[in-house]
Amino acid sequence: MSMPDELILEVKDLKMYFPITRGLLKKKVAYVKAVDGVTFKIKRGETLGLVGESGCGKTTVGRCIVRLYKPTSGQILFNGKDISSLPENKMRSYRKNFALIFQDPYSSLDPRQSAGNIVGEPLKIHNLVKSKKDYQERVEKLFQSVGLDPSLMSRYPHEFSGGQRQRMGIARALSCEPSLIICDEPVSALDVSIQAQIINLLQDLKEGSLGLSYLFISHDLSVVKHFSDRVAVMYLGRIVEITTPKKLYNNPLHPYTKALLSAIPVPDPDIEETRKRIIMKGDVPSPVNPPSGCALHTRCPIAIPECKELVPLLRDVGGGHEVACIRVK
Amino acid sequence: MVPILEVKNLRTQYKTESGLVKAVDGVSYYINEQEIVGVVGESGCGKSVTQLSVMRLINSPGEIVGGEILFEGQNLLQFKANGPEMRRIRGAKISMVFQEPMTSLNPVLTIGQQLIEILEVHLGMSRKNARQRVIEMLDLVGIPGASSRIDDYPHNFSGGMRQRVMIAMALLCNPKLIIADEPTTALDVTTQAQLFELMKSMVERFKSSLVIVTHNLGIVARYAHRIYIMYAGRIVEEGSCKEIFRNPRHPYTIGLLKSVPRLDDQEGKRLVPIEGMPPDLIQMPSTCAFLPRCSYSIEQCRVEPWPELRKVEGTKHYVRCYLKTEAWEQCRSHSATT
Ligand SMILES: Nc1ncnc2c1ncn2[C@@H]1O[C@H](COP(=O)(O)OP(=O)(O)O)[C@@H](O)[C@H]1O
Ligand SMILES: Nc1ncnc2c1ncn2[C@@H]1O[C@H](COP(=O)(O)OP(=O)(O)O)[C@@H](O)[C@H]1O
Ligand SMILES: [Mg+2]
Ligand SMILES: [Mg+2]
C-alpha cells in the first residue's frame, strides 16, 4: 500500500549547464545555464505544473528527470533513490516508470511505423508481454483508453489528425503503466477545440488510475492552472514560486508571477475593462549570462540593491506556499 | 458613419492537387474609423486568406474569384494586384503586421534602410527627414537607443523587438487601417502583453483602425470593440465585443468559449470540448459546416442550406444559424458531463 503523502519524485538543486564550444578543439567558452538550481517534489497521484516563458528551462528539467540529459549537478530521487548519476545500463530498468508526452505530435512519432507498432513498441522493449495475443490485446486496450478506434491500428501517422496523433502519443506513454508522466507542452500545437479534448483525456486517465503522477509542462498558465494540483513558476532556470492554482491566482507573491498573470487576458470584456496590467520592462535576458543575484532584478518593478547580490532561495511562507523573493515578507 | 473598409461577399480559392479549396467563401464585413475589430477562429478557417485578399497579396494557386473590397470609395479588386494603385495603398494606407516579422523584413538591409525607403517612396520625404522620422517612430514604439539601433540588421533584434520594428513600419505613413495577423502568437505572453498595449495606444494616437486576427479569445475580449467569428471560410457570428461574450449565439462560438481554460476558472471545472474536427474546405456540404459537430441541430439544419448571417431581433448581433433563442440559451447553460 502506498502512503497518501508518499513522494514519488524529489528534485534537489538540479543544474544543467550546456557547454558552448568553439573551434576544432571544441574549447568550452561559456555555458548555457538552462537549469540553475531547481528544487521541487511530486507526491504519488499528484500533478505538478511547470510554467514559464520559452527558454526558461522547462523542457530541460523534464529531460534531466528521464535522463535524456545527464545533469551537471543536483539530485533526482525517484521513490527515494537518486538516479541523477546512474550509469545508462542501470537507468534502463527505471525508464519504464517514466513516460514522456511531447508537444509536437507530428514529429515525435516515427512516420514509418504503423499506429499499432508506435503504441505497442515500449511493451516489447521492456518485455512486458507474454505472447502475441497478449500484445494484441494490450494494444487494443490502449487504443480504447485514449478514445481511438482499434481498427486504426494498421494506419500510419500521416493519416491521423493532430489530435489523434496526440492520442497515439498518450497511448504509447501509457503502455508501460508508468508511475510518472512528463507532459511537455502536450496541447500547445493543437487548436483550442481539440486542446480541450486532450486535456479532458489526460484528466480522465489520472482519475481512472490510482497513483499516477504528472509533471505538466506548459508556457500557458491558464492550461497549467486548470490541470495541476500545484504549480511551479520558472524564470531563467529557477523556480520563483510554487503553490496551489487557487493561491497562485488569488494571492500571487512573486513579482514575476504577478506580471505573468496580469499579461494573460481573460475571455471576458467586463473583467478586462478594469483589469490593470503589470507590464515588465524589456525581454528575458540570456541564460548564458544571467543577471547576478535574483535573475529578475533587471526587470523587476520592486527590486532593491540587495536583489543584485543575493540569490533568493525558495522558502515556505505558510501552508506550503513557496516563494523565492527577498521582498516578500 | 461610412466604414473605412467594406468587404462584400469575398470569395478566394486555391486550386490544389486534392481539389478546389474554398478558403474564403462569401465573407462580408466592415471596419469603422478608429475601430478595433477582432477576427477569431481556429487555424485553417480562412482568417489570413481574408486579410491577404484585402491587401491583394494572394498568389497562385490562389485566386480571388468574387466579391468587392471597398476602401475609400474604390473597389480594390478593380486594380492589378501589383499595379501602381495597390502599391500606393499597400503599406501606406493599409498596412499589415504578420506573425513572423522575418518574412516581411529583408535580412540583408538595415532596419533604417528599409523604413526610410518607405517614407521616400510613399511620402516623397528627403533621406534626412525620413531618417529623423524613422528614429522618432522607433523611439515611440519603445526601442531603446533608436538613433543607433536604426543602423542594425533585423537579426540583431530579439523576437519582441523585431515585432516592435514591424509595428513602427506599419505606422510610418499614418495608415487608415492596420491589419495585425496573429502578430504575437510566436512570442511569450509578457511580450505579447507589451505589444498589444503598444498597438492599442498607437492606433488611438494615430487615429487608425485596427483588425486583430487571432485564435485567442482573451485578446479580443480585452482589445476589440467588435468581433467576427469565422468557421470554415465564412463568418458565423458578428457583434459588439460585450454582446458576443455575454450572449454568444452560434453553437461554435459557445463551444469555443467553453473549451478554453480560463485563469479565473473555479477549481475542478471541466472543459467542454467541441467534438469532432473542423471540415475539409475541399468538400464542403451546402448545409451548415458546423452541423457534424453541433449537438443542437434541428431538422432544418440538416435539409436546408447554411443560412446567411441574420440579425437577432432587438439586437445588433448577427448569426448564421437556424436555432431559436431558447436553443442558444440551452447550449450556453449546458455544462460538462463526465
Ligand atoms: N541541448 C541543448 N544545448 C544547448 N542549449 C540548450 C539545449 N537545450 C536547451 N538549451 C538552452 O537552454 C535554455 C532552456 O531551454 P528549454 O529547457 O528548452 O526551455 P523551455 O522548455 O522552457 O522553453 C534555452 O536557452 C535553450 O536554448
Ligand atoms: N497557398 C495555399 N495553397 C493552398 N491552400 C491554401 C494556401 N493558403 C491557404 N490555404 C488554405 O486556405 C484555408 C484557409 O487558410 P488561412 O486563411 O491561412 O487560415 P487561418 O484562419 O489559419 O489564417 C486553409 O484550409 C488552407 O489550407
Ligand atoms: Mg520547452
Ligand atoms: Mg492565419
Name a few traits of the molecule.
heterodimer; A: 329 residues; alpha/beta; Rossmann fold; 8-stranded mixed β-sheet; 4-stranded antiparallel β-sheet; 11 helices; 31% helix; B: 338 residues; 13 helices; binds adenosine-5'-diphosphate; binds magnesium ion
Notes on the protein architecture:
- The complex is a heterodimer of chains A (329) and B (338).
- With 329 residues, chain A is an alpha/beta fold.
- Chain A folds into 2 domains: 7-97 and 178-280, Rossmann fold (3-Layer(aba) Sandwich); 114-175, no CATH class.
- Chain A has 11 helices and 12 strands.
- In chain A, the strands form 2 sheets. Chain A has an 8-stranded mixed beta sheet with strand order 6-7-8-3-9-10-12-11, sandwiched between helices.
- In chain A, helix 3 packs across helix 4, helix 3 runs parallel beside helix 5 (162-174) and helix 5 (162-174) packs parallel to helix 6.
- Chain A is globular and about 70 Å long.
- Chain A starts with 6 loop residues before the first strand and ends in a 6-residue tail after the last strand.
- In chain B, the strands form 2 sheets. Chain B has an 8-stranded mixed beta sheet, with helices on both faces. In chain B, strands 2-1-4-5 form a 4-stranded antiparallel beta sheet.
- Chain B is globular, with a radius of gyration of 21 Å.
- In chain B, helix 4 packs across helix 5 (127-140), helix 5 (127-140) crosses helix 7 and helix 7 (159-171) packs parallel to helix 8 (189-206).
- The termini of chain B are far apart.
- In chain B, a hairpin with a 6-residue loop joins strand 11 and strand 12 (318-319).
- Chain B is α/β, with parallel strands linked by helices.
- Chain B has 13 helices and 12 strands.
- Chain B has a single domain (1-93, 173-262, 271-338), classed as 3-Layer(aba) Sandwich (Rossmann fold), CATH 3.40.50.300.
- The longest helix of chain B is centred in the middle third of the chain and has 18 residues, at 189-206.
- The mean pLDDT of chain B is 93.
- Classes of the chains: A alpha/beta (329), B alpha/beta (338).
- The interface between A and B is large, with 45 and 47 residues.
- Bound molecules: adenosine-5'-diphosphate (ADP) (2 copies) and magnesium ion (MG) (2 copies).
- One magnesium ion (MG) is lined by residues 47-48, 181-182 of chain B.
